[in-house]
User: Fold this.
Amino acid sequence: MKTVILGSGSWGCALANVLADNGQDVAIWGISEEEINDINLNHQNSRYFKAKLNESIKAYLDINIIKDADILLLSIPSSAIEEVCLKINQYANKPAIIINVAKGFHPTTHERLSVVIDRCLNDKVKKAIVSLIGPSHAEEVVIRLLTCVNAVSNDLESAKIVQNLFSNNYFRVYTNDDVIGAEIGVALKNIMALASGMLTGVGQGDNAKAALMTRGLAEMTRYGTFFGGKFSTYLGLDGVGDLIVTCTSVHSRNFQAGLTIGKTNNVKEFMATNTKTVEGIKACKIVYEEALKNHIDMPITTEIYQILYEGKDCRLALVDLMNRELKNEY
Assistant:
């Protein structure tokens, strides 16, 4: 099967490496000539990591490479998915399994990403939509450290194809049919990772982080089940699993963003100087607005929103969270 990964960033390269290790026919399409040349000539993507890539991986600037592809994997920011789907409509020439690995929502419609992809792609170019998501950092996958994720889809046969395509002795893929719950889970954990970074930035310790992750999981579950997700999903890889890795790892862009904001207490400066995709910042605004509209209690999300968009002091947010009306845990 021919797989083309759209996006030459860290996660796209790491997943290409997995497929190449499995002996699969894989190519990368990207828009950065520097990255494409680095992959082809040096077998690495030095912008993101020093690790060498499998030498069978080829990268292209010409989007015509997606023609005849059996699988198209979207490894791009959530805000770019609509634009890239329009390119797929123009250049793809047969139905393909579409894999999404981004974690977030459409910036204006607030749709889950599989919904955006389904809406934007013509029937002639999409066979099925699968989300390949879970607790995973490209920096570890590219050096073949053990990782487990989910292939999530309403089409279980296509999810199994993706499962078999990617699975090997260091990258294990499970299947899951709770599309709503899984997509919401992996998007909301980015908000909690921002909060985790802020906690560390202001000098809090392990007790606070444990409380944050536990109560954050409660918020994720409350929000996800309201919109139709399964409770059990939040006890799995796309719930507590992704929450743990993103709230505790130095590889997490959302944690690092929160850490910087917590240390400086200056959101404006961070926003003005940040050059990396931090999905939790956009997701926080969307989730806050949807929770407000639907009367879903989301105290942590609310405080992070007020820090990011209303200039609230990080330490005051902590005080307000701790001084909320006392209640039973469940």
Observations:
- DSSP finds 14 helices and eight strands in the chain.
- The chain has a mean pLDDT of 97.
- The domain at 180-322 is CATH 1.10.1040.10 (N-(1-d-carboxylethyl)-l-norvaline Dehydrogenase; domain 2).
